[in-house]
Every structure is written in C-alpha cells, then in structure tokens.
Amino acid sequence: MNTIGRKFRVSIFGESHGELIGVVLDGVPAGLELCEQDFEQDILRRKSGAKGTTPRIESDRPTIVSGIFEGHTTGAPLTVIFRNGNTHSSDYELFAAMPRPGHADLTAALKWDDCQDPRGGGHFSGRLTLPVVAAGVVAKKILADATMLDETPFTAVNARIVELGGIPAESLEMTKFETADPEMPAGWQEAIDQAIKEGDSLGAIIECTVPDIDPGYGEPFWDSVESMIAHAIFSVPGVRGIEFGDGFRAARMKGSEHNDPIGPDGRPMKNGAGGVNGGISKGAPIVFRVAFKPTSSIRKAQQTFNFQTGEMDTLEVPGRHDVCFALRAPVVVEAMTAITLADLVLVK
What is the pTM of this model? Predict the structure, then answer.
C-alpha cells in the first residue's frame, strides 16, 4: 500500500494537484532535535526550475503538524505536510481519453475503476517524492544520533548522477555532478538541450554510496540489505533497475575477478559485492546504481489509442514536465536508502 518499514514506518499521502501532500513517520525515537529548517537543504536539492526540470515551481515549505514539542520529537507519529499551489489541472483532461504511454494513467484507471484523481498524475506523481525526501531527513538524523542509538552505524549517504542520456560521467572527465553545482558538463547540457528541442526526454543512472557502514546489518533472504533497499528504491516513480557492486557485469566475470579477498583487518580488499554478502553488511561501503527511465510525459507526437474515438490517434502531451526527472532524484535515492537503513538499525 502506501507504507513501508517495520520499526521506522513511513506512510505518504496526497495527490499532485490536491490540497496538500505529506508523510507520517511512526517509530521516530523521542528526543531527536528537529525543526522545519532542518528540511531545507535536501528539499532545495530536489526543487525544480533548473533547465531540464519542470517549470512548475512550488514553495515546498514543510509544516510539522504532529510529533514535535519544544523542538524535539515526542515519540508519537511525526507528520509533515506540504501545500500545493501552482497547479494547472486542465492540462490533464486529455488523458482520460488518451492515457499517456509509459505513465500510470491507464493502470490507475483500471485498478480504481476510473475513481482516481488524474490531475498532475495524482498519487502516482513524482511530486510524492517530496514527502519521501522529508522522511529521509528524519532518517538521516536518526542514523547520525549516536547518543540515541548508542552507536553510529555510518556517517553519510551520498548519491550522484553517473550517466545521463547514455553519456557516462567518465567520458566527460568528471567525478561528481549535483544539480546544485553551478555548471553542468557540456555533454549533458547538450543532450538536455537537444531533448528540449525535440520535445523528448532523457533517462539517467544514479550511483549511491554508504561509505562506512558497520558489518552485521540485514538478514538472509527476505530482509537482506539489498532486497530492502531495492524495495524502497523501486517505489520511486521512474526507476527501471538497480544493481549492487559489480552488478550485471558480474555475470561476465570469473569468480577470481568478482570475489572480494579479505584483508588482515577482516574487511574486504575490494568491493565487487557492493558491501553486502549473504544479505548482511560486511563493513565495506554499500554501493549501488539505479536506472531512471526517460520521463513519460513528452511533447513529441506519439501514436497511441484514443478510448473516446476507439481509434489510434496522435498525442502531444501538454503541460509542465521534467525533461529528465533524474536531475532531481539523487536526494530521493538518498532518502529511500536512509529510510531503509534507519529501519534496519532500529530493528537490530
């Protein structure tokens, strides 16, 4: 449904063009210092407005409505809401007759017998990643609070774009890219400009690293570190794949190439497994990559079925949409990872 987690439970609610969207967090330890300003940095990393992102600009101002007293969490469910304001709902009227190819318009209508809210993609919109980012801020605080956990399992979760529009970062002689950086590499900028010109969209690959997590987190099989992270990551709209460590390249390797020899300190000397063996963290950095598809809503003409006329028709999607949603997604990947690991740490 709309909730994930066992001890640290995250529930999101709302629709893209409804009055508000939000998140309820259950299992937040009492005594954690928290205020609305704490959300600002990560929210800004997700914010739209830069080239290649949607021109829909919202205030994205968080309001904490429960679970806080005098600047500290109370242990009761923590609720954070964001009000919607800049909506153009008429842009979406066409999709009742002609669902967007690649989008959830049709599956939502079939599942909920046309009772869904179609405006802005409704509950399926990428706008619902905003409360996910808010949950990630709280999760990061839980993980960083050594006094609360009697330990610090790790100090950071870092995500970055490593490929955009099929162009790897390595080919551009760069090692890091965040949308907050003042300059985008020319190769990626040109790809975005070309997609805008053609009315098309681009996908990307994001790499996430948890650099110094302690060994012992996770369980074999169903609650392995990889399966829990993958569960959360695949909940992000537009995700099409995930791989850990050597990932799919491991299928083309020999065991002598993929195996991680153990050093004198008991930790692996390389990291082909991406920091996890047998579903359990092993003391090496957790490293995984996430494939984001090109945005489904594009201006470029597509042939698709018109349910009103009963014939194939030409669809040119109106409205305001990201050319590449992945530009705003590194912080979303970080949030999902922190949410998962906070749950693992609190359950352990």
Answer: 0.92
